[in-house]
Design goal:
By secondary structure, the protein is an alpha/beta fold. The chain has a single domain (4-338), classed as Metal-dependent hydrolases (TIM Barrel). It is built from eleven helices and 13 strands. It has helices at 33-47, 50-65, 85-96, 111-127, 144-157, 174-178, 206-211, 237-251, 257-265, 289-292, 321-338; strands at residues 4-5, 8-13, 69-76, 99-104, 134-138, 161-165, 187-190, 201-204, 226-228, 278-281, 300-305, 308-312, 315-316. The chain has a five-stranded antiparallel β-sheet, with no helix packed on it. It is globular. The mean pLDDT is 97. Bound molecules: zinc ion. Zinc ion binds at residues 12, 14, 75, 164, 189, 231.
């Protein structure tokens, strides 16, 4: 017996993280969140080039499909390869058959010119008809001018802003910086240390928050719509939902898995068509929150999108799994050599 559900939606991902696994240890051990950014992610993203971006997206999309995830909201940064990067990601995922909503994370970490180029990449991609949002890394790495520029561009193009908000204590004044700018279509990621409510959807990433030791976001206590993301640690949404549930439950013993299931459901606001994707699972109650919450290891056997089988017996049909893994491994070696 096996259950069939709609496709899963990962509502916050960093596809470029697919190559980061096994990367060399940083020169100094990070002791807090800002040092994890400085010594791990900001060294990694600056080393990315187009081929690395392509194969990390391809590998991450294949791995998403193998978890029954057919739609991904991606947040991308590659300061040394900005122009065209969003198209590379969207095309790689489309080749595998995974739907995407992409954004380039604008930042002033590389000066005003870097921020301008990031904003231009969002604009180029969206004006060409690409599906996405205007990305911003986070308020604490941007000037007020850059934040305003991103908000204005998003409003002009009729999309939201996809931004990390108060993930760690270093961004604790994000509420003050953003409250005059944020609107209902903004995609607010983390909101762990946010000191007020902002309009928008909150993307909750429990595993990443625990891994970075930033604290519990308590998303159920916010009035916002909540969706679930992985923040770059794969795209297994049933796994993320199980973790979201126990983290919620640790905070509130009266909480129910239905709350977390609703967070998964809310992902269809971003990708309504993913409701019609069909995922066949290896477990006959994969459609039941109370079953899934207590059943680790549920796997997708088959995935069907628009009538096309994209995953058969756990293997992608459009691309060669072994080839994708080999190419991604080759790019990971190049990336690690640069680090
Ligand atoms: Zn993130």
């Amino acid at each position: 017996m096996s259950a069939v559900t709609p496709g899963m939606v990962c509502s916050h991902h960093h596809l470029y993280s697919a190559l980061a696994r096994g990367m060399p240890a940083p020169p100094r051990q990070p002791t807090k969140f800002i040092e994890i950014l400085e010594q791990v992610w900001w060294r990694l993203d600056v080393a990315l080039d187009e081929e690395m971006i392509r194969w990390s997206a391809m590998l991450a999309a294949v791995e998403a499909l193998q978890c029954g995830t057919t739609a991904i909201v991606d947040h991308h940064e590659s300061p040394s390869a900005i122009e065209g990067s969003l198209s590379v990601i969207a095309n790689a995922c489309a080749a595998v058959g995974v739907r995407t909503n992409v954004a380039y994370g604008v930042t002033d970490r590389h000066g005003a010119e870097g921020a301008r180029r990031g904003l231009a990449e969002n604009e180029r991609f969206l004006r060409a008809g690409g599906r996405g949002m205007v990305g911003v890394h986070a308020a604490f790495t941007c000037t007020d001018d850059t934040l305003r520029g991103a908000a204005e561009l998003a409003a002009e193009l009729g999309v939201g802003v996809h931004i990390h908000v108060a993930e760690g204590p270093d961004d604790a004044n994000a509420g003050e910086r953003l409250h005059a700018l944020a609107t209902d279509d903004w995609h607010l990621v983390h909101c762990v240390h946010l000191d007020r409510d902002l309009p928008g959807t909150i993307a909750h990433n429990p595993r990443s928050n625990m891994n970075n030791s930033v604290g519990y976001a308590r998303p159920a206590a916010r009035p916002n719509r909540v969706v679930l993301g992985t923040d770059g640690i794969g795209a297994d949404m049933l796994e993320e939902a199980r973790l979201a549930y126990v983290r919620l439950r640790e905070d509130d013993v009266l909480a129910s898995p239905d709350t977390v299931w609703q967070w998964l459901e809310n992902g269809y606001r971003l990708f309504p068509e993913a409701r019609h994707d069909r995922v066949t699972w290896n477990y006959d109650h994969a459609d039941s929150p109370w079953h899934v919450a207590f059943t680790p290891g549920v796997r997708a056997l088959q995935v069907e999108v628009d009538g096309e089988v994209l995953l058969a017996d756990g293997v992608p049909t459009r691309v060669d799994l072994a080839e994708v893994r080999a190419k991604a491994a080759e790019q990971a070696r190049r990336l690690f050599a640069r680090l």
